Amino acid sequence: MTTISGPAGTPDPAPGAAPHGYADHKSDHLARLHKIEGQVRGVTRMVDDDRYCIDVLTQISAVTRALQEVALGLLDDHVRHCVTDAARSDPAAGEAKLGELALALRRTLRL
């Protein structure tokens, strides 16, 4: 059974199917996300402790940048794996993946 993985409405691969493009870097992405999670908890503590506004904003900026780096890594994996493989196997599938990529870039860049 195929499940929908997110707002883009793209299906997760079926068991035994090719893994997502980020499979080779999954542990790296997860490690960064766990670090970011800790940073967010730290920001929460800062607010709870009534820390200086600028210090809190500085940490929020660092968290935002860290999330952007994860997003860029995932986009890079998508292009190098999903888009490239689709384009090699079927031109129509390649076009569909390019459309997905354009939409993902718009979301990431908020255009």
UniProtKB/TrEMBL annotation:
Residues 1-25 are annotated as: Disordered. Pfam families: Trns_repr_metal. CDD domains: CsoR-like_DUF156 (cd10148). The keyword NADP does not apply. The keyword Repeat does not apply. Gene3D superfamilies: Metal-sensitive repressor, helix protomer (1.20.58.1000). Belongs to the CsoR family. This is Metal-sensitive transcriptional regulator. It comes from Streptomyces thermospinosisporus. The lineage of its organism: Bacteria, Bacillati, Actinomycetota, Actinomycetes, Kitasatosporales.
